[in-house]
């Protein structure tokens, strides 16, 4: 599958990137996931499998994920500029000038790798308006500190506002990172997808495997649900009832996967990066090298129109 442009920028990204929340190492975010076995091996596998970009954030272990990712890239001999890096500023309890104040921290944590995309992590939690935050991002872009500006978890109206502010600087909003998967399709109802298409904004789908549910592993072994950290159980919407509700979708994914010699998760990712055309790219996370390899290989899978439609229909009854 061909690379895609990030929004209307000149930045080319693979339809699947690697989510690096799993590299947080410490803090609240780290507790959601099991510790990755070997970050360098995960990053190597992702790159060898055709992934050319990585999504990280200040909030993931207070820079721990950014440092772990770029340490791995250095170890693998990848020069700055060879890969695309997206990170995020956290607005929690801060005012917009913190975007300027913390840029040196981001640069330090990324150890020489440029910021291709800087995102506002959340539309709430900060003490300044979205307008002020976006203006601060625009100033960083004008100063050449970041290559493009994105947002995350923004509504359609908030995207419009961010886009307007950026336009006044001669810039365009590159992306909105939101949760999308076969089990989370509210972008179709809340105007985010339509707005993204109209504005030429890329939607970066986070939790595209619904925290692992769309690999079928919890359906195969429901005992895994209980073993999951509580926070992650809440985030993934997993419960015994949810397993029952989503079983027909998982069964269909399994049948399609068998027909292609692929895995359930690969079919779920392939649907996500095909069904919405070029607007949606996905950033599955991985705690093991083989997971990164498997997710990346979804870029080589071609589902038929009939399979795409069948999954569309079935997922509507499992979607929350
Ligand atoms: N902007 C935001 O607010 C926001 C919020 C959440 C996430 N994100 C971003 O999105 C990325 C991905 O989201 P996510 O990590 O929440 O969910 P996800 O990608 O849907 O799920 C990742 C988890 O699925 C499991 N998995 C992956 N490949 C697998 C395979 N082949 N077989 C079995 N299990 C597999 C792993 O679980 P185990 O841990 O059990 O191995 C992995 O930790 C994050 O890394 C982060 O960059 C952004």
Task: Provide a descriptive summary of the structure in words.
With 320 residues, the protein is of the alpha/beta class. The protein has one domain (4-212, 265-303): NADP-dependent oxidoreductase domain (TIM Barrel, Alpha-Beta Barrel). 45% of the residues lie in helices and 12% in strands. The protein contains 15 helices and ten strands. The chain has helices at 27-30, 39-48, 64-75, 97-101, 103-109, 130-142, 156-167, 192-199, 217-220, 223-227, 230-236, 240-260, 264-275, 289-297, 305-318, and strands at 4-5, 12-13, 18-19, 53-55, 84-89, 117-120, 149-152, 173-179, 202-206, 280-282. Strands 3-4-5-6-7-8-9-10 form an eight-stranded parallel sheet. Helix 6 (130-142) crosses helix 7. The longest helix is centred in the C-terminal third of the chain and has 21 residues, at 240-260. The chain binds NADP nicotinamide-adenine-dinucleotide phosphate.
Features:
alpha/beta; eight-stranded parallel β-sheet; 320 residues; 45% helix; 10 strands; TIM Barrel
The oligomeric state is: single chain
CATH architecture grouping: Alpha-Beta Barrel
Largest sheet: 8 strands, parallel
User: Structural class of the secondary structure composition?
Assistant: alpha/beta
Spatial strand arrangement across the major sheet: 3-4-5-6-7-8-9-10
Based on Cα principal axes, name the global outline: globular
Helical run tally: 15
Low-confidence stretches: none
**How many domains, in number, for the residues?**
1
CATH class: Alpha Beta
**Helix and strand element order:** EEEHHEHEHHEHEHEHEHHHHHEHH
Ligand set: NADP nicotinamide-adenine-dinucleotide phosphate
- Beta-strand content: 5-15%
Arithmetic mean of pLDDT: 94
Over the alpha carbons, how many angstroms does the gyration radius reach?
Answer: 19 Å
Distance between the termini: 30 Å
**How many β-strand stretches?**
10
CATH H level, superfamily name: NADP-dependent oxidoreductase domain
Briefly note the CATH topology name: TIM Barrel
* Helix percent band: 40-55%
């Amino acid at each position: 599958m061909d690379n895609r442009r990030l929004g209307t920028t000149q930045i080319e990204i693979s339809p699947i990137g690697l989510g690096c929340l799993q590299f947080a190492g410490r803090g609240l975010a780290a507790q959601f996931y099991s510790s990755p076995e070997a970050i360098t091996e995960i990053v190597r596998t992702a790159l060898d499998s055709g992934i050319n970009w990585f999504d990280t954030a200040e909030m993931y272990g207070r820079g721990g994920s950014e440092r772990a990712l770029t340490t791995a890239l250095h170890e693998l001999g990848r020069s700055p500029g060879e890969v695309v890096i997206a990170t995020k500023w956290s607005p929690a309890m801060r005012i917009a000038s913190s975007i300027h104040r913390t840029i040196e921290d981001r640069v330090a944590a990324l150890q020489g790798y440029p910021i291709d995309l800087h995102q506002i992590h959340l539309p709430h939690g900060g003490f300044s308006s979205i307008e002020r935050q976006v203006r601060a991002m625009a100033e960083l872009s004008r100063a050449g500190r970041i290559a493009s500006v994105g947002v995350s978890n923004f509504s359609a109206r908030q995207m419009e506002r961010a886009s307007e502010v950026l336009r006044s600087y001669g810039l365009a909003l590159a992306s909105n990172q939101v949760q999308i998967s076969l089990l989370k399709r509210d972008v179709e109802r809340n105007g985010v997808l339509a707005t993204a298409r109209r504005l030429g904004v890329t939607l970066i789908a986070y939790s595209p495997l619904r925290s692992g549910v769309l690999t079928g592993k919890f359906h195969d072994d429901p005992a895994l649900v209980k073993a999951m950290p509580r926070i992650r159980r809440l985030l993934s919407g997993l419960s015994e009832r949810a397993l029952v509700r989503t079983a027909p979708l998982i069964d269909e994914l399994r049948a399609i996967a068998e027909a292609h010699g692929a895995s359930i998760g690969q079919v779920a990712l392939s649907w996500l990066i095909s069904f919405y055309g070029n607007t949606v790219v996905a950033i599955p996370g991985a705690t093991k090298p083989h997971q990164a390899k498997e997710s990346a290989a979804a870029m080589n899978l071609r589902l038929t129109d009939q399979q795409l439609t069948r999954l569309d229909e079935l997922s509507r009854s499992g979607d929350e």
